[in-house]
Design goal:
about 325 residues; mainly alpha; globular
Length: about 325
């Protein structure tokens, strides 16, 4: 067994083990009955909101490429982003899907360094907006969350995220003799691109707003599913509890987030008194909805010229001797 196959098998095993553990804690018959009786209108609303989520994500990424002066056309950005959503179903965590997106963007005309930085900065902005949103809305749940220590987690994470971004901005101040290394030149370009995005309001503001809207919209997807399952949660509950779940799901330790998402959802919604069984059904339904909504991305890939790019990404390491020396 190759190293890649072993890692994939371990992640699959982790996903299966976490889901099996949670299923063993709930009444499966009752949970299945609850899932079968989901309100169709709320389910349709959740599906529509999920479609909006894909568009928002693509527009956020496209806006970042504009900021770093390597703009992707809007329609192409939407197509590539949707294809990457499909590959996110089968590749471990968000990292695999991002690798596909980077390679397809590179094959669409972006320098490899620019394609990499564009995806990295889009992820950085997404995480920053996530922790800022949770830090801002968390006080609304103080009366329902026990423990003083929990209240400090996201304010501290917000400060850490901002400090990290400032640190990245100064990475091109490294000693000049180090730029003989290609990786150092890449890091220096990342610092310059970070300043282009975060220090220019005409770029920082729209990308930040798109990132915030994306988190709010995904929280509404969960809220719609919760209402369809007749789970007693409010919009504010979802706005505060869902973004941390998204953050945990970015860890490349499972297959498409399965198992990790369920564990995080059960834990998060347990803070406000939602039963484990209800949270588990909600999380599984969310995963199934995401699968159904992203599967057409595979058809888009199959019918598009980007199919060969993904094959090349899987078969060859990302290496570029000329584009990294920017």
């Amino acid at each position: 067994m190759s190293k890649k196959s072993l890692v994939y098998a371990l992640k699959f095993a982790l996903s299966a083990a976490l889901v099996a553990y949670l299923l063993g804690k709930v009444d499966l018959a009752h949970s299945w009955e609850k899932a079968k009786n989901v309100d169709a209108l709320w389910l349709l609303a959740a599906a529509a909101l999920f479609g909006v989520q894909v568009l928002v994500g693509a527009m956020r990424w496209q806006a970042v490429t504009v900021a770093i002066e390597q703009a992707l056309p809007v329609i192409r950005a939407i197509r590539l982003f949707y294809i990457s959503c499909f590959f996110g179903l089968v590749l471990p965590g968000a990292v695999g899907a991002d690798a596909v997106r980077i390679w397809m963007a590179h094959k669409s005309g972006l320098k490899l360094g620019a394609a990499l930085n564009g995806v990295m900065l889009e992820r950085i902005m997404t995480v920053l907006a996530l922790v800022l949103l949770v830090a801002a809305t968390q006080p609304l749940l103080y009366s329902r969350i026990e423990g003083e220590g929990v209240r400090w987690i996201f304010p501290l994470l917000s400060l850490g995220a901002i400090a990290g971004i400032i640190f990245i901005m100064f990475l091109d101040r490294l000693p000049g003799h180090l730029n003989k290394w290609r990786i150092v030149r890449g890091v220096m370009q990342l610092a310059q691109d970070t300043r282009k995005l975060f220090l220019k309001p005409r770029h920082a503001v729209p990308v930040t707003l798109l990132a915030l809207f994306g988190h709010v919209n995904f929280s509404l997807v969960v809220f719609a599913l919760a209402k369809g399952l007749d789970i007693d949660v409010g919009v504010i509950d979802c706005l505060v509890l869902v973004p941390p779940v998204l953050l945990i799901m970015t860890l490349p330790i499972s297959i498409a987030g399965w198992g990790v998402r369920e564990t995080a959802m059960v834990t998060a919604f347990g803070f406000i008194g939602v039963a484990d069984a209800a949270s588990l059904v909600l999380s599984i339904l969310l995963g199934l909805l995401g699968t159904v909504m992203c599967l057409p991305g595979g058809l888009v890939w199959f019918l598009s010229p980007d199919r060969q790019s993904v094959r090349e990404a899987a078969e060859a390491p990302i290496d570029e001797s000329s584009d990294q020396a920017v």
